[in-house]
Amino acid sequence: MVWSVLWISARVLVFTSLLVPGSGRVLNEGEKCGGGIRDTCDSGLICQPIERHPILFFAEGVCSRGVGCNCSEVECPPWRRFCHSRIVTDPCGCCEHCPKRKGEVCGGPSWRYGNCDSDLVCAVVVGLEPVTPPQLGVCKAVPKHLKKIFPVHLCPVQNGCNVHVGTCDCYTDQACDASFSYSTYEACNKVLMADWMYDPDESKPIEPAQPMPPCMEWRCIVQGCECVCKMMPCTYIKQLYEPECCKILKESGCNNTSCPEIPPPSCPADSFITQPHSEPGQCCPNISAMCTCDFQTCPPKPDYCPLGELPEVVKKGNGHPGTCCDRYECVKQNFN
Fold first, then answer.
1. Which of 73, 137, 232, 269 could form a disulfide with 131 if both were Cys (CB 3.0 to 4.6 A apart)?
2. Would you give the DSSP letter of residue 274?
3. What is the DSSP letter of 323?
4. What is the model's pTM?
C-alpha cells in the first residue's frame, strides 16, 4: 500500500511539472504581440495586426479589444442547450451562442446579432467586404477563389484545458470556436487526480453525490395572447421556442400577433433572400428579408481559353445583387 501511494505521488509530481501552463508572459492591452513575440495576449484580447498580412496570426500586432467592441451595450442571446454545431463566441468576446447559419443576420453593434458557423463568413449585406461593427451582416458561404476578399475575423484569446491521452493539455487559442472542457489547469488536474487516486481494490466509503444544479433553459409559453419567454426548467412540459410559440398565437387568431405582411423581395439569379430576424420573445421581425449576393454562384477565373486568347474581366463585380461577380471572357490578344 505504501509503495502504491509513493508511486502515485511520484506520477503526480512528474505530470504537474510537465503540465503547468508555459511561463510565457501574458500581454496587456496596448502591448505588442504576434510576429516573433512568443508571449500571448490576455484572455479576451485580440492580437490586432498593425498591417494587413496574408497570415494574420503571425503578423506583428497590438493586443486590443477589437474594432467597435463594447460589451456593455450587448445583451447576450438566450442560452440554448442544443446547437446544430459547436458553440462560438463573437470576435468581440462578449457572448457565447449557437452559431448563425447561412442567410441569418450577424454582426451589428459589438456583434450583438452573433457570429457565423465556422464554414461561413459574416459579410456585409451589399458589398465586397467582411462586417465591421456596427455594420449589420449576413452569414454566407464563400468559395475558395474569393476567400482573400473576406479575411477571417480575428477572435479573442481564450485559455483553457482539455484532457488528452490521460494528461491535462492546456493551451491558448485565438479562435471563435475554441472548445475547452476546463477553464483552468487546476480544474482539469482535479479531475485527473481523482481518477489516479481511485483504487478499485480498496474499500472506500462512497461519498454522497453532490446535487446537480437544476437544468434551466430559455423557453416560451403561450399566456393569453402573448409569448412569454424566460429561463425555465428543461423538463417543463411546454417546451417551445419563439417560432413555435408565435405560430400557435397566429393560428389562434390573436389580434396582437398579426404582423404586417411584407412580401419577400424578388432577387436576381446571383443572390438569395436572407432570413428575417426577430428579437428574442418577439413574434414580428424587426429586420426584414433582403436580397444579398450568393458568392457560391461566382465562377473562378477561367483556366483555359482558345489559342491566342486570354481570360480578362469584362465586368467587375461589386457585391450588389445583379452584379455580384466578376464576369470573364476569353479575349483575343494582339501580340504584334
1. 137
2. P
3. B
4. 0.74
